[in-house]
Amino acid sequence: MRDICLKMYANRNISVGTGVNRLGSYIRGAGYRSQFIKDFCDSAELSKHLSEIANVKLARHSVPAVACGVNYAPEDIRRAVDSWHTDSVAFDIVMMMSDPSQIEGGEFQYFRGTKMEGQALLGIDGEEGIDTELPAERIKTIPFPAPGYGFMQQGNMIFHRACRLKKKAERMTVIPSFVVVPPKAADGTNSINMAGWDDPGLAAELTRHEAWRAAARLEELVGDVSLHDSRKRLVDEVDKALAPLLALRDRLAKDIN
């Protein structure tokens, strides 16, 4: 997998989309570029293993652009590899492809507190972070013992970052993302945030994702509706089923000239 990430490096994204605020060098939709990476992220064995850890059923994320990404070290090492932020997906894994013994700096860290508290300390809101410092006593560093090691996190709830490098070095991480299934289950995907990214095809992928989840909620509603339901309850249930899809629709409409 490391060799594949190295081959894709020349075609990476640099300071566009999310990279303006956070990532200096990255690839989204790695499964579009590598059948091996796609098969890895689609692995039923991997999803089953992670589901057992999370105690909830997971599947490869239904938005291919975020189903598997690769983060690289920025060319300008004055920049963080990835600044303080939360993810736009509920679960992901961070896998180190490079030899950590050859890297000075670039540590993965998380804030020991709620994401709301971390954002308040930095004076920001939303998911996209900034490259600044939080109190050292509130920060935990997660070491990678060797290439190929990784961990799973509840990315939309953990305030985290990858620090600046102290000197130039190869630092590549592969980040597969997962979604809770069945589709009627609560969904931590932040489609509204991702709708602001400029990756090709992402708006269509997000629309498909939200339509899939909404269809499942509507199908459940068909079986739940009772002749005794009040009009208020019926309106509330329809609104609840359609709300995420319509919120995405409204966000996409803002970008129409």
Strand residues, percent: 15-25%
How many structural domains are formed by the residues?
Answer: 2
Q: N- to C-terminal separation?
A: 41 Å
Alpha-beta classification: alpha+beta
Describe the structure.
- The longest helix is centred in the C-terminal third of the chain and has 23 residues, at 202-224.
- The protein is globular and about 65 Å long.
- The protein is 36% helix and 18% strand.
- It folds into two domains: 1-183, Jelly Rolls; 204-254.
- The chain is of the alpha+beta class and 257 residues long.
- The model has no long low-confidence stretch (mean pLDDT 92).
- The strands form two sheets. Strands 1, 2, 3, 5, 8 and 10 form a six-stranded antiparallel beta sheet that branches. Strands 4-9-6-7 form a four-stranded antiparallel beta sheet.
- Helix 8 (202-224) runs antiparallel to helix 9.
SSE blueprint and pairings:
Elements: H1 2-8, E1 26-27, H2 30-33, H3 35-42, H4 44-54, E2 58-60, H5 64-67, E3 68-71, E4 80-85, E5 91-96, E6 108-111, H6 115-122, E7 139-142, E8 150-153, E9 160-164, E10 173-180, H7 191-194, H8 202-224, H9 231-253
Antiparallel strand pairs: 1-3, 2-10, 3-10, 4-9, 5-8, 5-10, 6-7, 6-9
